[in-house]
Amino acid sequence: MSEVREIKVTNDVGLHARPAAVFVKTAAGFSADVRLQNLTRESPTVNAKSILSVLSAGVEQNHRIRLTADGEDAHEALEALCALIESNFKQAEA
Amino acid sequence: MGEQLSGLGASPGIAIGPVFRYEKQRLRAEKVFVEAPDAEQAALQTALDQAAAELEELRARTAQEAGAEEAAIFEAQALFLEDPELLQQVTSLIEEESVSAAYAWDQGTQYYSEMLRALDDPYLAQRALDVEDVAQRVLAILQDEDRSDMRLLQRAVIVAQDLTPSDTVSLPKEMVLAFCTAEGGPTSHAAILAKALGVPAVVGLGSSLLTLENGAQVIVDGDAGLLLLEPDEELLQQYGERRRELSSLRSKAEARSHEPAVTRDGVAVEVVANVANVADAEEALQYGAEGIGLLRTEFLFLNRDEAPSEEEQVAVYREILQLMGQRPVVVRTLDIGGDKPAPYLDLPAEDNPFLGQRGIRLTLCLEELFQTQLRALLRAGHSHNLKIMFPMVSNLNELQQALVHLQAAREALEARGRAYAKDVEVGIMVEVPSAALIASVLAQHVDVFSIGTNDLAQYTMAAARTNASVASLANPFHPAVLHLIEMTIAAAHEQGRWVGLCGEFAGNPLAAPLLLGLGLDEFSMSPRAIPVVKEALRRLSSEDARDIARHALTLPDADTVEAYLKSVQEASNERAGKCHQ
């Protein structure tokens, strides 16, 4: 099973710092292979379960990213990651 | 007979013990080919597990000592150890090229730290440093490289080039006997930390300090600014005795630390604490602080991804205010500049941050952040004895603007129908010479002055206290600084305002007669300095102190002022000794 989504990152630090860590930990919770591309920077597609790769994608506020998931729980993985981004990582702070 | 090195005494006291070299020498891994790559993979895994355990230990300790925000740094570092891409790269390098785990790890981590650095983003540059930090930790384990050197396992004298705040976080405080640094001035971080811990420190000892070997026995004399190498039996005995004397003096002072500091002629002097978080405030009470003369609020704003919310700030301020009950608490609004790690503020790097947009200059430009902090303070101050103080004020206009902001915050709370501190006193830090020179103008608009002698000395003498080659110039005993202090106090008293002093100077018992004589109303210092300063004040009469201050102001330079005050102190010690007999 494979699924692709594009989404704008709106929280003020982008995928830096704690949001990046939360993002990676969430992705790592799924068995599907999850990959991320920063469309705004046109950077290469990277492993969304790797904190170093996600940081080096340099996703800042208002950058658009493409998420691709491949595997049994691909749909659930993207649901969870997009919910995280859409909430501006709010539930992660609670 | 051993040699000695001399530097600047930055925190008083005597320590005797082994040297611990604190250094961040970068480990490298040579390209080594191995016959059994599998064994290397296993070694890598073991090293990663050990590093993870160390980071967890560091995180837990930092959370306790410095708070959750700082501890999060180590949590993030631990995540690097599990990074699938990094591990993939390292394991396949071992596998395919039959190289050692250390070499593969060094290569892999370097690749990522360079990539993060190349993105030219100050936040990512910090993360590159974190990657290097983790890389070094694992490399040291793999190479079995002096791990005992990197970990302080026994009580020791810390010897370093210089120490940054992040270095000091990683030192187990109960193991530190003293600090000795090759660089640094009397208000460098090592000095400030030493005073806070109540251990001696000598700074500016020069590069020959760094030739000392781990474990070498030394004596640190924080009063004389000396480091004695390879001391013989006689010296050890002599210093051992002095150390015992000092500690008995200290315990005597501590036994009375909760009594007020009343001079021989019956003048009660307020002795309060400088604190930077809740734990400090607890310590302040423990050492007999009668309030807080300086609550630094930077801790709430640094090393995080976004500004703290009003609610978060209210909760923290309230916790400290509740701890202090009805004792006065002077809170300083955010005092940072371009040299501080607050990525969400996106502050431009400045060539000269100490003369740049910092303190009130910065917060006046960050309206939302400033309003949020002021509202939070006003709310938390409700039914407590809160005073709000603005840092780095250099002219009347800045003060007037700050007061307009404060009024706006009051009105916002009024409109929301919130309870807040309605008649909160307002003050400024006097730390820029211009503020001292126009103190009589500024005093018409505020209730409180607090003299910040660390900055006042550095700005008056045009000598950065972080620059070892000139730091000794930024000496608050210099008559130029003393005259500014005198002017500030006189101008404030003329208009019925009170004056505190919250630099390191206030915690120096040598300066007590001088500051009392200049008419200082409130002494604010590191909590641990309180008992000894209270005891020093109890020995004085305010009338004698006035004469002492008057004489000190006529002296030509800092050295003669210090020498004069030492002679005053010795005379007073002798008198005290006779009284006890």
Task: Spell the H/E element sequence of chain A.
Answer: EHEEHEHH
What's the pLDDT, averaged over the residues of chain A? 89
User: What is the CATH class designation of the largest domain in chain B?
Assistant: Alpha Beta
CATH homology-level superfamily of the largest domain in chain B: Phosphoenolpyruvate-binding domains
**What is the architecture of chain A at the second tier of CATH?**
2-Layer Sandwich
Q: Which residues of chain B sit in consecutive blocks of at least 5 with pLDDT less than 50?
A: none
Tell me the quaternary state.
Answer: heterodimer
Structural shape of chain A: globular
Q: State the largest interface.
A: A-B, 19 and 23 residues
Topology, element by element:
The complex is a heterodimer of chains A (94) and B (581).
Chain A lengths: L1 E7 L8 H12 L4 E6 L7 E2 L3 H6 L7 E7 L3 H13 L3 H4 L1
Antiparallel strand pairs in A: 1-4, 2-3, 2-4
Chain B lengths: L3 E3 L1 E4 L2 E8 L15 H29 L2 H14 L2 H14 L3 H18 L3 H21 L4 H4 L5 E5 L4 H5 L6 E6 L7 H9 L3 E3 L13 E5 L4 E4 L3 H23 L5 E2 L5 E8 L2 H9 L5 E5 L13 H15 L4 E4 L27 H4 L3 H14 L5 E5 L5 H21 L8 E6 L2 H5 L1 H4 L5 E4 L1 H9 L17 H16 L3 E4 L10 H6 L4 E4 L4 H9 L3 H11 L5 H23 L1
Parallel strand pairs in B: 3-4, 4-5, 5-6, 10-11, 10-17, 11-12, 12-13, 13-14, 14-15, 15-16, 16-17
Antiparallel strand pairs in B: 1-8, 2-6, 3-7, 7-8, 9-10
Helix pairs in contact in B: 1-2, 1-5, 2-5, 3-4, 4-5, 9-20, 10-11, 11-13, 13-14
